[in-house]
Every structure is written in C-alpha cells, then in structure tokens.
Amino acid sequence: MKKFLKPTGLALFIILTLAPFQWVTLLTISGLSLKPVHVSLALAFGAAVFEKKKVAWRGLFLGYGSLFVWLYGLYMLWYCVSVLWAGDQLLILPFLAKQIIYFGCFLAFSILVFKIARRGDFIPLAGWAALLGVFLFAAYMVIVFAAEGQNLLAEYYRAILEMDERALLFQFYPILFNYSLDDAVYLTSLRNTVMGVIIMYLLLLLTWRRTLENRFLKTLATTGVVLCIALVVTSVSRSNIIILGGILLLPLLMKIRWENLR
Prior knowledge:
Strand content: under 5%
C-alpha cells in the first residue's frame, strides 16, 4: 500500500478514478472551466517529465508494443498536414494544437503505466481505482436524479418492464450529461466514451479479481464487475453491448483453445 502513495501511483489512481467524469466541471475561474481531463493531462505530463529512466522512453517507442504509438503518430502527422492544406490555418491551428496535446497525454500516460507495471503495482492499483471509479459513477447518477426529483432505480425498473425504448435511449444519460453541461443536448459520443471507460473498468476488475485471495476483496471486485455489466447493458448502446459480450466470452474461448492445444 505504501507504494500506492508514491507520486506516480497517486497520479495513475486519480486519472483512472476520474476517467468517467471528463465532462463534469470541477471549478470555473474567469470563464475558464477546470475538468477532470485537465487534471489527468497535468498529472500524466508531470509524471512523464520527471521520469528520468531512459528505459521507459525506449519501451514506448521500441518493440512490438510500440506499434500503436507509431501508427497513431503517423495518423496524427497525416491528419495535421491534411487539415492545414485544406482549411483556414488561423481557425484550424488551435484545434490541431489540442489534438497534439492529447496525443502527448497518451504518450505520457503510457510512460506512467509502464513505470508502475515494471514496479509490479499496476494490477492492484488499477483494480482499486476501477472499483472506486465505477461506484462513484453509479453514485453520481443516483445523486443527479435525486437532485432532479426522480428515483433512478424506479425509473429504470419502470422503463424495462414497460419496454419503453424511448425512455431508455433518451431519458437517463441525457439527464445525467445535461445536468453538468451548459447546453441541453444529447451526446451519443459522450455516452459511448463513458461506456468505454466502464468497459475498461470491467477488464481491470476481472484481472484484479484473479489475483485476489481475500474473500471480502473478491466479493467487492465481483460486485464492481456486476455493476459495470449493468451500466453497459442499461446504456442501450448496441456497439458497447457487443464489445461487452466479446469480453465476457473471451475467457471461455481462451480456455477452450488451451484445452484443444494440450
């Protein structure tokens, strides 16, 4: 547990825990809003800047695991050249700068994960962060609906029993997002982004659960897994539900494949 309190461990823990809340405004100063994504950017870059061991940077750009980094880097280069060639540079440059910063954040986050994985702390740290993150997100949903004068569980129960597809599609997550956004809009992409984080939580919890021997912790991890599955299914996102099904079937398929090779 002491290793979790190191700066890099705390940075990763905060980044993973805040991942579902990227649209929520934490603080507004002079018209500028501070969001969890900005906190994540600062923590990831800070951890990368203070990483003095060259082995972490070499691991990022060398070897089989670096393939995605190089492919995405080439995509960013092509994207920047194409946009600059086709549009008004004064309008496009801020947008391109934002994309480059986010790519840099991905590289910094990879350095952070690489360092913690080499230290042997990634699975338990990520498991705790995923558990806290999914419970916080579920609690946030309940709190938002309570503030709106609605009972989240009762509304879900009614919509499912009555097979009210419109309510399932346009009532729950739009209310959740619009509670924290200035404009009243339904953002499908935002819902899919959040569900992507919940699916990531599911993978982290399943991995962490396999390493646990304590019965209470194993029960907590199982509860988190069930909650992740419930959130994805009740999001009524076909693409995310298909991905969820593939993840849940993967261990069975790997077991069958392993038994056939023996």
